[in-house]
Design a protein that fits this description.
Blueprint: H1 2-29, E1 34-50, E2 53-68, H2 73-76, H3 88-116, H4 128-131, H5 135-138, E3 146-150, E4 153-154, H6 158-167, E5 173-179, E6 182-188
Antiparallel strand pairs: 1-2, 3-4, 3-5, 5-6
Helix pairs in contact: 1-3
Amino acid sequence: MVITILAGIFMLGVCIIIHELGHLLMGKAVGVKAEIFSVGYGRGIWKKKIGDTTWQITAIPLGGYVKFYGDDYEEGRDVPGGFFSVPPLKRIVPVLGGPLFNLILGAIIFLGLGMFTAPPSNEVTILEELGVDSPAHQGGLRTGDRVVAIAGEPVENFYDIQNKVILSGGKPLPFQVMRDGQSVDLTITPAVDAAGRA
């Protein structure tokens, strides 16, 4: 539980840093200079000035912000490279930079999940020590069997198998499986709970 909470806080921090980095980089792209890029709020415990920007990490590293030069409407118009020294359409770019970078981060995460997770399989794994009393084992399914069809309809993944079992209402289902390169026909009767669900 604690690890899950800490992981959530860490990922929130990553999202915020990417968001603020979007503001910073898109601001630089249109000539708006950043005075401070801060990871967290409060007093800085580490600071380093690189170019026009002071980079800092604070005592409370939750959140973050970018402070642009000349971000005060009254005084900022006279500050070279300030936020209000550029035309309104250019000011939109750093404002939208944060959400844009969050969208890009989300796309990268989903792409990564799609590339590095296995697609659902129609291969059945039964733990023999736990599954001997299960309807699947009693019906003849064994570890390594690949379910190819149920009631004559092809199945491509575990979700297809699950849906057909749920919709059966506990009635016997004809399974066609591949076992060691051979087609095997089985009849399996799903168990039904007290609510009548298979």
